[in-house]
Write a structure and sequence with these properties.
single chain; alpha+beta; five-stranded mixed β-sheet; globular
Length: about 150
C-alpha cells in the first residue's frame, strides 16, 4: 500500500470523487434548514449530521454498496453508531467502476480535519473497502466537507 498525503485542487477532488458537489450542496441546504436558536454549536452540528444521514439513506438506501453514511467501524466491521473505539465514516462513497473510495468528514464548526483524524479515516476506509467492497488496494481520498455560506 502506498500512502500519499497532500491537498488536491477542488477540480481534482471532483474528478476522483464525482459526488462531491452533490454532497456539498446537500450539506449547505441541510445546514441552512436546521435552526441554530436554542442549540449549542455541538448540538447543531449533531443535528446537521443526523439530517444529512437521513437524507442520504432516503436517496441511496440502507444497504447501498455505493454510498453509506454515519458508519461506526471497528476492526473493519460496521458496529452500532457510536461504539467505543470505533472510527466514524460520515460519508463513505465507493466510486463505481473504480478502486476509489471517497471518505467525507463533515465539519460544521471552526475546527478543521486534523492530520491524525485524516489518517484514522483513511486507514478505516481502506480496510473497510477491502473487506466489504472487495477492493484489493483501494485508493482513498479523505475529504473535509463543509457547508458553503
Amino acid at each position: 500500500m502506498r500512502v500519499t498525503v497532500g491537498q488536491l485542487s477542488e477540480q481534482r477532488v471532483r474528478d476522483f470523487c464525482p459526488k462531491t458537489a452533490e454532497f456539498e450542496e446537500r450539506l449547505s441546504e441541510i445546514a441552512a434548514g436546521v435552526p441554530r436558536k436554542g442549540r449549542s454549536p455541538q448540538r447543531w452540528g449533531m443535528d446537521v449530521h443526523t439530517a444529512m444521514h437521513h437524507g442520504l439513506r432516503r436517496q441511496y438506501g440502507t444497504a447501498s454498496s455505493v454510498v453509506r453514511s454515519e458508519l461506526s467501524v471497528v476492526e473493519n466491521l460496521v458496529r452500532p453508531y457510536g461504539t467505543a473505539g470505533s472510527t466514524r465514516l460520515d460519508i463513505y462513497h465507493r466510486v463505481e467502476g473504480t478502486d476509489t473510495i471517497c471518505a467525507y468528514d463533515i465539519k460544521t464548526g471552526t475546527t478543521g480535519l486534523s492530520a491524525a483524524q485524516a489518517a484514522r479515516i483513511d486507514a478505516t476506509a481502506h480496510a473497510f473497502g477491502q473487506r466489504s467492497g472487495n477492493i484489493a488496494n483501494p485508493r482513498v481520498l479523505v475529504i473535509e466537507l463543509r457547508r458553503t455560506p
